[in-house]
Design goal:
alpha+beta, five-stranded antiparallel β-sheet
């Protein structure tokens, strides 16, 4: 499943094309991709057509695009009129691709947005999904409890739109902030980690505690911090927590710089290009290969219906004294 770096690569690629773009048309080719859209909110197509996407935001693995009021509404450009957002979740195989209008090149196309940007012209935003685990929905925005921005918007969002920036879609509100979010509270994370009473990898995968870290980057971060995946989170001393969080950020930022991790053609950016972090992995998928730190063969062990990869010498299990 795409993790934070892969989703952030998509967000950053979409941002210049969609920020300020008018949605001129919506085509839904498969209703299953609207499984998270509530029909009580209204027609998906009608709620989008005639509105502008104001920015491209992300929290963890969720993308969303705050929507202006319809162009015909008197308050269309007023920040307080922003009550809804288009929310996208890639699931296991979803892709959001920018295409030139009239060029049919994407199979398994589920949803298409026709947009017109005041500077960059017309685009198609194609939502492609092989397994249909991903989705799009129009959702209501809620105020964030801390008054901070609802997620990461990059540098493309204007500075005069705080009324909508400090809001988050209701479907995303339960997701914790991610370690690259400027509003991420390190102290709060450490305190919550100490209360978890679970293995450290389970804690890292808990999206209500910290978001965006999936199996790949959890394994890589734990390898970097020399921690076994079952090490009790409540037994970690505060300095070790700081070290782990620092390694998480280093791993995520490096993966982001390399375009994410691509093992097949499903995980791509908005132009269909793959990431290259798979060439930099030290633990995940490296079973049988020597640890780049000590030379001991990396092992793969069963974990929560998936796998954990670790160095048995560098990452020893916790032993109670």
């Amino acid at each position: 499943m795409p993790e934070l770096p892969e989703v952030e690569v998509v967000r950053a690629g979409l941002e210049p094309a969609v920020s300020g773009a008018l949605i001129t048309g919506v085509e839904v080719f498969d209703q299953r991709s609207l499984k998270r859209h509530s029909p009580l909110e209204g027609s998906f197509e009608a709620l989008l057509t005639g509105r502008r996407m104001l920015a491209a935001g992300r929290r963890g693995k969720f993308l969303w695009f705050p929507l202006s009021a319809p162009e015909t509404a008197e308050a269309g450009s007023h920040p307080d009129a922003v009550e809804r957002a288009l929310v996208a979740h890639l699931g296991m195989s979803g892709q959001v691709l920018l295409r030139t209008p009239g060029v049919e090149e994407d199979g398994l196309l589920r949803i298409r947005l026709q947009i017109e940007h005041p500077e960059h012209g017309e685009f198609w935003v194609n939502f492609v999904d092989q397994r249909i685990f991903g989705s799009m929905a129009v959702d209501r925005l809620l105020s964030t409890p801390d008054g901070q921005p609802g997620g990461y918007f990059g540098f493309g969002a204007a500075d005069d739109v705080e009324a909508w920036r400090a809001r988050v879609p209701s479907q995303v509100a339960h997701i914790a902030r991610d370690p690259l979010d400027p509003a991420f509270d390190d102290g709060r994370f450490f305190a919550a980690l100490g209360r978890k009473r679970t293995g450290i990898k389970r804690a890292l995968l808990d999206q209500t505690l910290v978001s965006g870290i999936g199996n790949i980057y959890a394994d890589e971060s734990l390898w970097a911090a020399r921690l076994h995946y079952e090490y009790p989170s409540d037994k970690l001393a505060r300095p070790r927590m700081r070290e782990l969080l620092a390694e998480v950020r280093i791993v995520l930022e490096k993966a982001l710089a390399e375009g994410g991790t691509s093992f097949d053609a499903q995980y791509v950016n908005v132009n269909g290009a793959s990431g290259y972090f798979s060439h930099s992995l030290n633990a995940y998928g490296q079973q049988g290969k020597p640890c780049t730190r000590c030379g001991t063969p990396i092992v793969r062990e069963q974990f929560m219906n998936r796998s954990s990869h670790l160095c048995p010498r560098c990452q020893r299990p916790f032993r109670a004294r």
